[in-house]
Design a protein that fits this description.
single chain, 123 residues, alpha/beta, four-stranded mixed sheet, 41% strand
Length: 123
């Protein structure tokens, strides 16, 4: 038996709660599933069993200490979709035979990385 039940969420500190909420909900299209304006907390469902949350704070660490990684089918298609919303990708790289990677940031500089697997599934 494991000491935990399951993954719940990843959360990022944000300075402008309303701006960050709009970014995740409107620009990225994540479903808002919980919001508490008093504590400046919001949770978004990004896939079954996986959520991201934001928490309004007075200041954030200038250097991100982690990243949200999203599995994508095609990096180039994702880049086109995000570019239409003014979101630019950086740190684009390919690890031959393993993955294509690219990143962008939310309004507070938190890193969101896209990962396209290049590994062939063996069934």
């Amino acid at each position: 038996m494991s000491w935990y039940r399951q993954f719940d969420l990843v959360w990022f500190p944000v300075i402008d709660f309303d701006r960050a909420k709009a970014f995740y909900q409107e620009d990225l299209g994540f479903e808002l599933v919980l919001e508490d304006q008093d504590s400046k907390w919001a949770e978004f469902q990004i896939s079954p069993g996986a959520k991201i949350a934001i928490h309004g704070v007075k200041a954030t660490n200038a250097n991100p200490i982690g990243a949200l990684v999203l599995d994508v089918e095609n990096i180039e298609k994702s880049e086109l979709a995000l570019g239409g919303k003014g979101i630019k990708l950086f740190d684009k790289e390919e690890i031959p035979g393993l993955a294509k990677l690219a990143s962008f940031t939310d309004p507070d500089g938190n890193v969101i990385q896209l990962s396209q697997s290049l590994v062939r599934q063996v069934l």
